[in-house]
């Protein structure tokens, strides 16, 4: 089951990673928390080559991308990108919406939380 959790947008300025290198990123906002994903790695994840690293994003005289707290990879069907954090939380964004953001045809793409499948109670009456 899916529930709206946030959005993804292309960052207007370059970020600096923990080693001081600048990189272009996509900003991911999940339940008010900000993360960053490198654009080059995200393109590779869309192609199914390798997962992209997800890192915390903070504003410290400019955007600063922290260490890895999760990964983003293509779903089995290829119709979505699944973001999985080390805490076990899983989110999904449609691949078509992500491609539109990367091509600057759209401003943002919605992200949905993948809720764990629970036991369904039968409806009686």
List the helices and strands and how they pair.
Blueprint lengths: L1 E9 L4 E2 L5 E2 L1 E6 L2 E6 H9 L4 E8 L3 E3 L4 E5 L5 E6 L4 E5 H8 L5 E7 L11
Antiparallel strand pairs: 1-4, 1-11, 2-3, 4-5, 5-6, 6-7, 6-8, 8-9, 9-10, 10-11
Widest β-sheet, arrangement of strands: 1-4-5-6-8-9-10-11
Unreliable segments (pLDDT under 50, ≥5 consecutive)?
A: none
Task: Give the end-to-end Cα distance, rounded to a whole number of Å.
Answer: 25 Å
What is the subunit organization of this protein? single chain
The gross shape turns out to be globular
Q: Number of DSSP helices?
A: 2
Quote the beta fraction: over 45%
Structural class: mainly beta
Kindly report the average pLDDT value.
90
The tally of domains stands at 1
The share of residues in helices is 10-25%
Number of E strands: 11
Order of helices and strands: EEEEEHEEEEEHE
Largest sheet descriptor: 8 strands, antiparallel, barrel
User: In angstroms, what is the radius of gyration?
Assistant: 15 Å
Describe the protein's architecture and organization.
It is a single chain. The protein is mainly β. The protein has one domain (2-113). It is 14% helix and 47% strand. The protein contains 2 helices and 11 strands; from the N terminus they run E-E-E-E-E-H-E-E-E-E-E-H-E. Strands 1-4-5-6-8-9-10-11 form an 8-stranded antiparallel β-barrel. A two-stranded antiparallel ribbon has the order 2-3. A hairpin with a 2-residue loop joins strand 4 and strand 5. The longest helix has 9 residues, at 39-47. The mean pLDDT is 90.
């Amino acid at each position: 089951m899916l529930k709206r959790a946030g959005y993804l947008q292309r960052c207007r300025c370059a970020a600096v990673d923990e080693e001081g290198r600048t990189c272009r990123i996509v900003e991911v906002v999940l339940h008010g928390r900000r993360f960053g994903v490198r654009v080059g790695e995200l393109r590779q994840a869309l192609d199914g080559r390798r997962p992209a690293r997800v890192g915390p994003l903070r504003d410290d005289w400019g955007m600063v991308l922290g260490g890895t707290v999760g990964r983003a990879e293509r779903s089995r069907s290829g119709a979505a990108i699944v973001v999985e954090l080390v805490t076990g939380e899983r989110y999904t964004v449609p691949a078509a919406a992500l491609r539109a953001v990367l091509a600057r045809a759209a401003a943002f793409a919605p992200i949905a939380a993948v809720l764990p499948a629970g036991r369904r109670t039968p409806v009686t009456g």
